[in-house]
Design goal:
Elements (H helix, E strand, L loop, with lengths): L1 E15 L2 E15 L7 E9 L9 E11 L4 E5 L9 H17 L6
Antiparallel strand pairs: 1-2, 1-4, 2-3, 4-5
Length: about 110
């Protein structure tokens, strides 16, 4: 899934070695690939090196997320080092990719 979100909460939920695991909750502003609708709430997990200032992670982000499945549960996780600031250039590129994917597969959703 690729989405432009507004990050609302960042809660530390675990520590693994020198990394912290955060549950990120936000509101989808625009979807470029995936199966959620703008306006919906989205939660995913993100692993970050200890010492990173998570207050810098507030606000709007472009996030790349995948569905992680285990025997016990399924959850969304961020691809490592993939989030981007939602600059006009990044948004334009993602919108163009979304349009070209729709033209290539007109019956397939995102």
């Amino acid at each position: 899934m690729v989405a432009h979100i507004k990050v609302l909460n960042t809660d530390q939920v675990d520590k693994i070695g020198g990394y912290l695991v955060y549950k990120i909750t936000g509101q989808v502003l625009e979807l470029y690939k995936g199966k959620v609708e703008p306006g919906e709430s989205l939660s995913y997990y993100m692993q970050i090196e200890e010492g990173y200032d998570m207050s810098r992670y507030r606000g709007e982000k472009i996030v790349f997320i995948y569905l992680h499945n285990t025997d016990e549960r399924s959850d969304y996780r961020a691809l490592e080092n993939s989030d981007r600031e939602p600059t006009q250039r990044v948004i334009s590129i993602l919108r163009n990719l979304k349009r070209s994917a729709k033209r290539a597969n007109p019956t397939k959703r995102n």
